[in-house]
Amino acid sequence: MLQAIFYARFDLAKGPSIIHQHPPNSVIPSATTQDSTLLNFNDISAYVIPDYEFCNLPLSIATHGSRMLGYPISIEDTKYARNRFTFNVCFLLDEEDDVRPWTQVVKKTAMFFRAMEEESSLLDVEEELSGLIWAGDKGYPAKDIGIVYPLLEAVFEQMNAYKEVCVRVDDLRVLNLRLSRPREIPAEVHGWDVPLLTRQLPSPAQWTWDLALAKIHPHIDGIKHVRRIAELADVEIRLVKRTVRELLYHERAILLDIFHFQAIYAPTADFAWFAKDAAMQEECANYIAVDPTKNGLAIHSDHQTSPTPTKETILALYASLTPGLTVQDFLLAKQTELSNIDIRRFITFGVIKGFLRRIHKYALAITSSTHITAAAIEPTGGSSSPTKTTKPRTDDAIPRDIDRAWRKAALSSGWATPPQTEKALATGSGSLSKSARSGEGSNHSESDELARHYLNGQHCLDEVCVNMHASERKIVERLQSGRIGEVLLFNR
Amino acid sequence: MGSTNESAAANGLIAVLFITRSRPGPRLNFHYPARPQWPIPVKSRKERNANSGSDSESDLAADEALQHKSTKDTVPSPEPPVEVFQPAAGLESGSLASKVDTTPARLLGYSVENLERLLAPGKWSDRKKFEVCLDGLTLLGHPVYAGQDGKWSADGKDSQVIDKHPGHALPETVDEENEDGDSTEMDNDVDAQEEYQGTTTTAKITITAPEDAKSSHDFTHIPESLDSQNGVSLATSLNSASTTSGVIHDRMTMFHVVFVVAANKAKATADLYRHVARKLGKALYYCQKQTNYVSTESRTIMTLKMKAKIERLSTDALYAQMLETSQLAWALKEVFDSISVGRIASIRLDGSEISLQIPLPGTESHLDGESVLGAHSGILLLEDKETLLRELTTGDTSPLAFFIREHTPTKTLQKHAVNLGLPVADLLYLARHLIKWRKAKAITPLNQRNYYVVSPEAPIQRVYDLMPEYATRFAALPSLPQMLKILSGKPIKYVMLMPSRDHRGPYMSILAYLVRHGFVVQLKTFAWLQCPKDLRNSVAATPRKAATPKSLLSPHLRAMDDDTASVNSDRTAIPHAILSERFKSRSRRSSTGTQETAVKDSPAGAVSGPLIIVNPGSPTHVESDAIDRIQVAISDEEVQRLVPSILPYLDGEKVLEELAPREGLKRSHVERALEVLEREGFLLTFRRI
């Protein structure tokens, strides 16, 4: 809520002075009344019209419970006395108010005023007008004289009433402002994230889509992960990530995890809220319902089952999810109840609404095995097994860089890009040439080499699976094969 | 701990500046780090170029190069001394100077001179929050002014030191210098300073003429500032040129520690002010009042800077000296180093120690924000008792030491209070103190019959580091990775891990260790009461007053109506006894086991299921009917008696593990009651962290 708005200028005789303010008497008290003002202008005048170095920058100060947002403008021109015209349009807010929506409004207003002055000297001329009354003087404001006061008044009134402003100053100039909350910049998108559109995108006829979006759009379905989308759409994964991030920023999409049957989900605190929300349960029932005869995962009992599951069943099913229970085990245990439920939708509904959370599986190398190269490990303990540790390389930037470099080289030389080689490529600099020479036979050891990049407990198995093009079951088998040494798998 | 620290660390602290104002004007006395990580905007600004033509030379990275260059510049020009004394000049740009113009020292992308003025607000800001946002930077501080008469202390015992009337200025300055053991040559220097203010000011005014005119408005309320603005550097720099050891000290009228923060952290800024900036300001004010501490320290720093300038020391060498010599400089460094990474800063000011921190959000395990520390909470010490006791300055006999010595994480504070014979309120106070200073965290008391699982924020990267320590502490017990593996599988009661009763002690120590390091969290149990279908059918079959029109609105009622219809049409209820019989055969491994069977046994579950009472506090008619039915149907009398005290907890939001201590019941009784309820199908439970 805007408390006041004022226009101040550096006056050669008086120094920084407020010429216009709205509401009248808000900052400079009028000569006649003794109303209390929002703040003492003399205190902060140095911050309204600061040193030139701080001009043409956003500058605000919080004091006396108010926050003054300003954007001092200093225009240099020989036509002015002392070659400068310095002014500021300041917005007064409560100190506790969130300033982020206002910063752009303040800046745009300042730029608008600057343009008025630079193009037509409207501000400079205004002070020459006869009958202009300064803030604080008797009779202020003189409503019919000048353009600044009506402008400030309109901004103040419209902003507080509509959070939007549209004021026409003359034939050429219209000031349009809108208070909008800046969106959070979404975190980086990973290759194993699954984007799901939550709102329709404007059709390409209305909006020009960028090429990457146009190519990947058909593949965004809440099932395919980013890397898969990149492969299917034949778009570089970097571009896919960027596009998805853009969709996240505009709140058109959310990220899910990869649904598979080794995944583990558990309820969150929001589950209590879900249990109390009958409408949400209704929505859930409709979303997850599936014709039992078409549900390949369910056993078909001869019992008649209704098309939609009841709320109580749904709650009981969700409540029975627990850390350590994979979807597969859950499915086996609850086949009957799940016969008319689409298990993927059942899980994703919970994830989307936030009352389920995915518990990821991580791998941590505990002991070294003989064939790990010295570079990859640093044994820190003695020979007794619990203290003999390895520290796998955490640097997964290397494979990515090499991947990129290789692709670039491949493209420029006109090679085909065999999809098969990707995992070999990502194994690191040493194995690049090796993988090129040795054929299929060394595939396993290369994968294990790659796997060691992910064994520091920082990479969830989804990531490993996506990057190695293998199912979690296969990865787990490989990790537990003993070739990589002792690997701890844990869920968190 | 690791993760909580990281979240707190995101406060965007960029630098700490120390500004003092004395008669000649405000001055940047010290700042840390020497080269704040704040990118100078690439776009050069028109206005800046207008002020000083040599914008490009201000690049901080070029600092060292300039330093080298300046050492070769052996011919002293008339101007360098002018620049020499500018406080940060020696740090940022060496004494590189053109013949006619000086390169103003720059910090954070702005000229130090302008920053000094910006950060020295008028007296209106005395001991108030000062916050200026400047193009992506928030400058936050708590300025402190001397009293109206320029005195710092109320009793006036050091009035001769801080009298600020110009007429009295000279002799008293000298006195003070003598007092502090500084050179007695100061007399002459000060004289020189006075003389030079008049003459050199005009020389500079040509460079920044418009600015001077304007900035004169900045400090109209400070009588001296008008004439002294331009003299600040000139007068004293002359002094530095004339003597190698001289120090000019003016009576400090204000000091201001400014925290420079990236501006997009509004919440962090408020916390930073409340918990750090204001407290530091108050502490310094106290020290200044008592012993003139701040002015003495600022003088020490200025002396070093001046010497460094003359000896052409590198910035790093100067900083090393300042941090070594000045306690205040060291304190500011410590504040920056600790606060910027979210740690507690312990500093020593004038002999007394103070600690500053931005409290962790909620000062609680951030996964359960709802559990506030109460008599029924326990606390877990985050450091070893021995370490804590050693750190205690209060001595071994204080209640805090007593509490720490006797503390165990398995008991509630209430129990501790009884055992120690102290009031609960006192223990709560002690516990809050420990939590505030990150020596403990609030937990539900550890219990072997609780469930624990690996935390989503477990600091796995620390496993390797902690393994040796863990191995020595808990030799011959399962290794750290083994414990993590077990606790990340299907949840089981912790007691199930213990091979025998004798292992209880060590295993509970392991648990405390794991919780302390954030590896595991408690998996808490929540539940709702549910009325199984058959019991509801019997409700429906015996026509009670039944549904009032009002309760028709309830969605549950509709379900019940359906229910009745279906039962009447084609099915008979499964006798309750049979159900219970089956349940008894099942182990209570999974809480939902019973639930699952209940549904399985009634294939009509899709049409009519159990009624789940989500709001036991305000049940609908149907629900209270169901509750009555359940109470009657419970086979065990003892359990029946407990139901009224258990019922309020069955809302899906209250932790069942906390029920017993809160209600003053025996845990085993409550557990048995819940077990019976669950076995008989009256409970829908779920577990979450």
Notable features of this structure?
heterodimer; A: 492 residues; alpha+beta; 4 domains; six-stranded antiparallel β-sheet; three-stranded antiparallel β-sheet; 18 helices; 15 strands; elongated; B: 689 residues; 16 strands; 12% strand; meiosis (chain B); Npr3 (chain B); Nitrogen permease regulator 3 (chain B); signal (chain B)
Structure description:
Chain A: This is Nitrogen permease regulator 2 like protein. Chain A: Belongs to the NPR2 family. Chain A: Residues 428-442 have a biased composition (Polar residues). Chain A: GO terms for molecular function: GTPase activator activity. Chain A: One of its GO terms (cellular component) is GATOR1 complex. Chain B: It holds the Pfam family NPR3. The complex is a heterodimer of chains A (492) and B (689). The longest helix of chain A is centred in the first third of the chain and has 21 residues, at 100-120. Chain A has four domains: 4-178; 194-256; 264-359, no CATH class; 365-491, no CATH class. The two termini of chain A are 44 Å apart. In chain A, strands 1, 2, 3, 4, 5 and 6 form a six-stranded antiparallel sheet that branches. A three-stranded antiparallel sheet of chain A has the order 14-13-15. Chain A has helices at 41-48, 100-120, 122-126, 148-162, 211-216, 226-233, 237-249, 270-276, 278-288, 311-319, 327-333, 343-353, 397-413, 422-425, 429-437, 443-453, 461-468, 472-479; strands spanning 4-11, 15-22, 59-63, 66-70, 73-76, 84-94, 164-168, 174-178, 194-197, 253-256, 264-267, 356-359, 361-365, 456-460, 487-491. Chain A is an alpha+beta fold and 492 residues long. In chain A, a hairpin with a 3-residue loop joins β1 and β2. In chain A, 43% of the residues are buried. Chain B is an alpha+beta fold and 689 residues long. Chain B folds into four domains: 13-41 and 57-356, no CATH class; 361-443; 451-518; 527-688, no CATH class. Chain B is built from 31 helices and 16 strands. Chain B starts with a helix and ends with a strand. The model of chain B is unreliable at 1-9, 40-102, 156-248, 364-371 and 540-607 (pLDDT under 50). The chains are: A alpha+beta (492), B alpha+beta (689).
